[in-house]
Structure formats: structure tokens, C-alpha cells
Amino acid sequence: MLRILLIRLREIGDVVFTTPAIRALRRRFPDARISYVVEPHAAPIVLQNPHLDHVIVAPRLRGLRGAVGDLRLGRALRAQRFDVAIDFHGGPRAALLTLLSGAPRRIGYDIAGRPLVYTERVDRPRALRARHSVENQWDLLAPLDIAGPSRSHDPVEMPLDPVAAREIDQRLGTAGATPGVQVIVLHVSAGNPFRRWPLEHFGAVAAALAAERQRRIVVTSGPSEREAAARVTNDARQRLDPEAAGRILECGEFSLLQLRALFERAALFIGGDSGPLHIAATSGVAVVGLYGPTLPARSAPWRDPALPVKSIDAGALACRPCEQRVCAPGDFRCLTGISPERVVAAALECLP
Fold first, then answer.
1. Contact at 8 Å (CB) between 290 and 271?
2. Which pLDDT score is estimated for 14?
3. Could you tell me if 324 and 192 are in contact, meaning their C-beta atoms sit under 8 angstroms apart?
4. Which of 34, 36, 123, 262 is most exposed, with the fewest beta carbons within 10 Å of its own?
5. Helix (H, G, I), strand (E, B) or coil at 169
6. Among 42, 50, 53, 48, which Cα is nearest to 17's?
7. d(Cα 86, Cα 294) in Å, to the nearest integer?
């Protein structure tokens, strides 16, 4: 039996972008045992993936504890006698685990300083290209004779958890979002300030969309940005009369599994280029994505083109795309240049 090891560490969106490749590997090798190494933060994306046999969650530890833990994990991987290891990440830790796995075929990107890690290297240009991240990671399947991906046949995926779905139904019902209303989700935080649209713009969009009686607005954020969600909620309510203000709901925080279930219930998602947008792409919800320093061509929802998607950015700027380390103009114009009016118009086009 062929044993395949996949490694993709770090961010939620990056893990989502590997899910079409997982499906393709299962299709190409239906009888293989496929295992996936992921860090805890993004583990819910793949824990219930139907094409995987085993998910290995590798905690991120620092210093000596981290080094000892990785060596222990490496020994455990070697004991499973993998035939092929694919490093979708390319970072130092992922490269080390790939090497420690002992797989005779180790596939990774052609990165300087790692000539001994991979037995087969795939070119990855350093320049930021207008090419989707799904395709960039799919390149690593070429040594296995797997043809290129299709959005229709190889979409990103994250299975709906039935327990989370019941929890979301209950929470929405308690908050007043009965099955007959349109739920619109605004995700107002992002992994870094380079992807964070101004909160007052979110407030204006929430208020405009809540004007319709049959809509309910749910504002979500990351665990460390609860205050941002509260500010958007309060701002939107202050722009509305009391009846309409009641359509801006407070539903608390959501786990990744609950977010996936929330998007399944929602009619529309609005948010920046962050993990929740990519989770939304695994559902059928209409998506309005806001792109600042990043390009829609790289990270817009990868799914059936028949599903509604609007990608909004500030257009051609000399500083865009960027590495998201320093804002050269100093004013984050790639984000502030996106007006609330454009987002509302795009949202109305997506809504039935």
C-alpha cells in the first residue's frame, strides 16, 4: 500500500488551498494511505476531510521544547514508513519534518539552502505572481503525474460538521434569525493590519444592508479582536432607527467549525483576504472579498464559477501587491481606497 505524507503548517487559508490537491491525490491513488501534518490553529480544516486517513496535529512550541517535540514527531513519522512526502509549506520546520520522515521520495519547492531535503524540487518564483495559491501548491503534484486543477471539479472543501450546524441553528434562532430571513456575515478582522478594512466602513455597510426587513447582520471577528466586532456593531446600530438596529445581531464568538456552519446558513459573506473568507469559499455562500495588498488572482475563492463571487480592490497601485511588512505610502491606500458604497453595490448584486 502506498503511504503519502502531506505537510502544510501555519495559516488557515494556506491549509484550505491544499484541499483540492488532497482530493486529487485520493483520485489518483484511491487505495493509498494519506496522512496530513497540520498545526492546531488550522487543524479543523482537515480533521474531517473525507480523503484523508490520518491527521497529525503538531503543536507549535518554542525553544528547546519545540526542537525536542519535532525530533520526537520526526521519529514517529519515520516509523510509519511513508513512500512519498510532500511539503506544501516550504518553511524550515516543515522542511525538517519532511526530511525526518525518511520518505524515499520527498517533494518540495526549489528553495535555496535545502538541497538535501527534497529528492524532487519544483520551481517556485520568488516574485509575487498573479497566479492562484491553489495552483502554486498543486505544482507539487506534477512529479506524481497529476494534471492541473479545475475550479469546478477540484474546489476547496471543508466538510460541514453536524454538531456545529445544530449549534448555529440554535444561536441564530435565539438571536432572531429565523430560517426565513437572509443572514449576512461581516468578518471585520484580519491576520495583520495590511488586510484590515476600516471599521467605520464595515459599520456603514452593515447599516446599509440592515435597512431591508428580511435581513439580519452577523458581525464576526478573530478571538483577539472582539472589540473590533463590538465597535462595528455599535456603529451600525447608531446609524439606524431602533427597529432596524435590532437587525444587527450579537451572536458571540465562533469556532472554525461553527464559522463553516454559519456560512452554510448565510446568504452572503463580506470580508478581507483572511482565513474566514477561505472557509466561506468551501460553502455555497455568496462572497464579497476585499483585497488590499493581495491580489484576487492569488486568493479569491477557488470553487465552482457558478457560485456568486465579487472581488473588490483599489485597482492598480505602484505599491501593490506588496510583502505586507511596511506600507510604503504610509496610508494603506489599497484598503482605504475601497469605498463602502462599492461594497454595498457588490453585495446587492450577489443577494437573491
1. yes
2. 95
3. yes
4. 123
5. helix
6. 42
7. 26
What pLDDT sits at residue 114? 78
Sequence-distant (6+) residues with CB within 8 A of 150 are none
Cell matching residue 107: 517533494
Facing residues of 109 across strands?
Answer: 122
What is the enclosing helix (H) or strand (E) of 185? strand 182-187
- Amino acid 345 reads A
Pairing of strands 105-109, 54-57: unpaired
Strands 268-272 and 182-187: parallel
**Mean pLDDT, 10 residues at a time, the chain of 352 residues:** 96 96 98 98 97 96 84 95 96 95 96 87 78 95 95 96 97 90 92 84 97 94 87 96 94 93 98 95 98 92 96 90 87 92 97 90
Q: What is the DSSP letter of 317?
A: -
> What is the three-class DSSP state of 5?
strand
Domain ranges, ordered by start, for the chain: 3-144, 163-350
**Rounded to whole angstroms, how far apart are CA atoms 156 and 26?**
14
| Superfamily of domain 163-350 in the CATH hierarchy | Glycogen Phosphorylase B; (3.40.50.2000)
Q: CA–CA separation, 141 vs 122, rounded Å?
A: 9
SS3 for 47? Answer: coil
Alpha-carbon distance of 53 to 70, in angstroms, equals 22
pLDDT of the residue at 98: 97
As separate numbers, helices (DSSP H) first and strands (DSSP E) second, the chain gives 14, 12
* Grid coordinates belonging to 134: 491553489
For 347: left if phi > 0, alpha if psi spans -120 to 50, otherwise beta; the answer is alpha
Task: Give yes or no on whether 3-144 and 163-350 have one common fold.
Answer: yes
Q: Are 259 and 165 contacting, i.e. CB atoms less than 8 angstroms apart?
A: no
The CATH architecture assigned to 3-144 reads 3-Layer(aba) Sandwich (3.40)
